[in-house]
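Issue 218. Parser rejects a valid record. Input:
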Amino acid sequence: MKKNKVYESDDIRCVTGNTLRPGGFLLTNRAVLLCDILKNQKVLDVGCGMGATVDFLRSEFEIDAFGIDPSHKLINRGRELKNLPIIEGVGESIPYDNKYFDAVFAECTLSLMKKYEDTLQEIHRVLKPGGFVIISDVFAKEPDYIDELKNSDIQTCLRGLIDIENLLIETENKGFEVIILEDWTSLLKQLMVDIIFKYDSMDKFWNITTCENCSDFKTKLSLCKPGYFFMIAKKGD
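Output the parser choked on:
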């Protein structure tokens, strides 16, 4: 079995581009408009990868955007392409001061974390009062097999499918008010169509990027009925 980190693979970028997520910048753009994020406001992208969202926010909206990501490989690649303010770091220990940001993005990244609750706490710490956290990620419509997926050593966000009910509880417990929650599973389905178009089948893509023999994982994944969600929550004043 391979143990590649799918998000570091050139193969996934062939389908998603540098955003490494379903829908590209569609939900990023939607969040900027819904949260009324203004020019020169400070924004952090947690799990920024190569800095695609940071670059998008800066170039399209003139937002003062920064990024952190634990992948040395992706951060270096992003810096080689553009001189962006992206650094190595993890969501569980964000290297910025209290009440520093007006908004924080976590786009398809909480599912990669061992304990996203700690990241939510850190996001709350670095957000200004009234600031927004914007989350888009994969979730399980049938969460019965979530724990079994997490025990796998396959390095993909699908291993960390989120239980929406638990996320809502944790988000509110950390001091946020959830103001928008939307189902965007259509973006995940479109990504699967794009993968099949590019690689002829999902199985071939899995074999190239993830694992050559992971039928048990794929069976449990199917039983979980993966979806994709978009959420905005606001820190109390």
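Fixed in the parser; the record now loads. The longest strand covers residues 127-140.
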